[in-house]
Amino acid sequence: MSDHVKLRPFVAKDLDLLEQLFEDPVEAGEFGFFGHRNPGALRRQWAEQGFLSPQGGRLAVVGEDDRLVGEVQWREVFQGPASPCWNIGIGLLTAERGRGYGTRAQRLLAEYLFAHTRVNRIEASTEIINIAEQRALERAGFTREGVIRGGCFRAGVWRDMVLYSILRAEVMA
């Protein structure tokens, strides 16, 4: 796990790279491109709320010298009528993958969310063939819960997902 990783709010200078991460099929990579989206939507979201709201958010993942390497995000989901939890995701720039940033960023995000929100559970899912992300989640302390059959539509195909979670007591102990 890389020790040179921090999470911070996005700033204007980050937006060009963030847009590439979501709008460029090569930069997004095999598991990150879900088709072209509304151009400029990310910039409008940043301008309106800085990517932070009570229902979710997005933080920059930065390496040494405050260099943007990717982003983490979370959104509120419910596992029961009165049981909110966070579902998290990560996207790293192509050149930054495989360096341990994902493991550290996801652990830092879990620590941040448990310290600043009242949820008891954080979950993450990834395509069943995305072994690198599964390993990163496991190294970050997440537990594999099972397979979500046909849970993700990407590139014209419904794909199976693997669901992971981490609980407050596992992080805050």
Automatic annotation (TrEMBL):
Domain of life of the native organism: Bacteria
Domain N-acetyltransferase positions: 5-169
Keyword tags: Transferase
GO cellular component: cytoplasm
Transferase among keywords: yes
GO molecular function ontology, one term from the record: protein-N-terminal-alanine acetyltransferase activity
Name used for this protein in its record: N-acetyltransferase
Protein source organism: Streptacidiphilus pinicola
Lineage per the UniProt record: Bacteria, Bacillati, Actinomycetota, Actinomycetes, Kitasatosporales
